[in-house]
Amino acid sequence: MNKLVTKNQLIRLYHALVSRLNMNDDARMGVLTAFGVESSKELTVDQLQELCKLLKQQLNSDSDKWRKRVLASIYGYLQLTGRGANTDYVKAIAIRSAGEYGSFNQIPVSKLKTLYYAFLDKQKVLKRTGELMNEDLDLIQFKN
């Protein structure tokens, strides 16, 4: 009975990981086909453990990629505003911007993506407004 509970828990973990990785039906079927099955229920406990381990590694590499992107986008924004920063300061900005997370590594990938695009947008706005101000200054100098 304990092995059945473990298998059910692993199946739930498998589905949670697949969901967090945003895998479509074709990708899921590709993974299952690699194990020679058509359903996660047909996998053995050992196969489920191996599969979950592989999916966790993929999830971790994906989150590392987004963490680096967030840091770079915040650094870029701070550089445009003329402020220098160290990594701890940039991580603190990310944590404050993300909301209720205690550390940078606790921020989920979905929130990291939101932060990344938000700080990229802030950079674009800052560049656009700076260009507009330069055009206005050129116009004022031309009139004088």
Can you give keywords for this protein?
single chain; 144 residues; mainly alpha; 0% strand
How would you characterize the overall build of this protein?
The structure is a single chain. With 144 residues, the chain is mainly alpha-helical. It has one domain (2-143). The protein is built from 5 helices and no strands. It has helices spanning 2-20, 25-34, 45-80, 87-98, 109-143. Helix 1 packs parallel to helix 3 (45-80), helix 3 (45-80) packs across helix 4 (87-98) and helix 3 (45-80) packs parallel to helix 5 (109-143). The protein is elongated and about 80 Å long. The N and C termini lie far apart (88 Å). The model has no long low-confidence stretch (mean pLDDT 84).
Short recap of the structure:
The chain is 78% helix and 0% strand. The chain is mainly alpha-helical.
Secondary structure layout plus pairing:
Blueprint lengths: L1 H19 L4 H10 L10 H36 L6 H12 L10 H35 L1
Radius of gyration: 23 Å
SSE-based structural type: mainly alpha
Principal-axis shape equals elongated
Amount of beta strand: under 5%
Number of strands: 0
The succession of helices and strands, N to C, reads HHHHH
| Total helical segments | 5
Q: Classify the helix fraction into a percent range.
A: over 70%
Distance between the termini: 88 Å
